[in-house]
Amino acid sequence: MVAVLLGMADKPIPTPSESAGEPAGPVHQFTVNRGMLLVLVIETTSWYAGLLQAAVARIALEGQN
After folding, report:
1. Are 2 and 14 in contact (CB under 8 A)?
2. φ and ψ at 37, to 5 degrees?
3. Residue 14 has what pLDDT?
């Protein structure tokens, strides 16, 4: 059975690029340094994704030497 409802939704659905309000969990910060210089800070709610992004950024910086 399929139902069709015509009209507008009460609230717009946020796109992935828009902030949906408060984060779903704790925000983890990962820093990427080049020597003693802070180059990049990665903030994410996913610990594993942040760790992976920081590792890839470090590899990319080492490749620029």
Report:
1. no
2. -90, 125
3. 59
8 falls in which pLDDT band (50, 70, 90)?
Answer: low
| Helix (H), strand (E) at residue 56 | helix 47-63
Alpha-carbon span 47 to 44, nearest angstrom: 7
Give the integer Cα–Cα distance in Å for 5 and 7.
7
- 42 pairs with which residues across the strands? 30
- pLDDT at 37 > cutoff 80: yes
- Domain chopping of the chain, boundaries: 28-63
State the Cα–Cα distance between residues 39 and 31, nearest whole angstrom: 8
Q: Are 30 and 41 in contact (CB under 8 A)?
A: yes
